[in-house]
Each structure stands twice: as structure tokens, then as C-alpha cells.
Design goal:
31% strand; single chain; 7 strands; 4 helices; 118 residues; alpha+beta
């Protein structure tokens, strides 16, 4: 398995940016006849986080998700980092080439060496 950070060009200032989870979403319930104090905090999934960033990047996030799916999965690493996971380096290289073909310099991946993951 290989992992890479997914980078985008910011729509506002055109700097390289990447989505991260700053704090988990707080989900709860409201009952009709009693008080329910249960709250679950969890980070969004990889695709969910990327969908929420619609409009903040110069690239279409839905097209980005569709481009990534044949090669790998979007995941949240350590409840913070949005990464792409592929089964091997060949898929990562193919994904990188496809992103360059579809988005030019608006979306790219930066491989995370396995030594940094240990």
C-alpha cells in the first residue's frame, strides 16, 4: 500500500493547499419526549471531506473523486490528513499521470515515503 497527500490550487489566492480535519464533527440526537445527551464526535470520511471543500479549489472536487476512484481511495490519516491510498506504486504513478492529464497543475499528489509512516 502506498499513500500520498492530495494537493489543490486554492481558488482565491492560487497557493497550493490541502484539506485537513481541524476538529471532528459532533453528531447527536434530539428526542421528542426526553433529553438525549449522547454526542458522537468523528472526523468525516475522505470523500466527505473533499465534497465539503467544493468551491474552495480551482478544480471540481466531484471530478477529482471520480478520477481517484479507479486507482485508490481517499482516507483520513491520523484523524487529520486527507490522503490517497493505492495498492502499489504503479497505481500511484498512474493516478499522478491521470491527475496531470485531467487537471494540469490544479490537482496533484505528493507521495509519502514509508519511513515517514512508521
Amino acid at each position: 500500500m502506498e499513500r500520498a497527500v492530495l494537493w489543490f490550487k486554492c481558488a482565491a489566492v492560487h497557493d497550493p493547499v490541502r484539506p485537513v480535519v481541524r476538529r471532528p464533527a459532533a453528531l447527536g440526537w434530539e428526542a421528542k419526549h426526553r433529553q438525549v445527551d449522547l454526542v458522537i464526535e468523528r472526523p468525516p470520511g475522505g470523500e466527505e471531506l473533499l465534497r465539503r471543500m467544493k468551491g474552495w479549489f480551482s478544480a471540481d472536487v466531484y471530478l477529482t473523486i471520480d478520477t481517484i476512484r479507479p486507482y485508490g481511495k481517499l482516507k483520513i490519516l491520523d484523524d487529520y490528513h486527507l490522503v490517497v491510498e493505492t495498492k502499489d506504486m504503479a497505481d500511484m504513478d498512474s493516478l499522478s499521470d491521470k491527475l496531470a492529464e485531467v487537471f494540469d497543475e490544479e490537482v496533484w499528489v505528493e507521495h509519502i515515503p514509508k519511513t515517514r509512516l512508521a
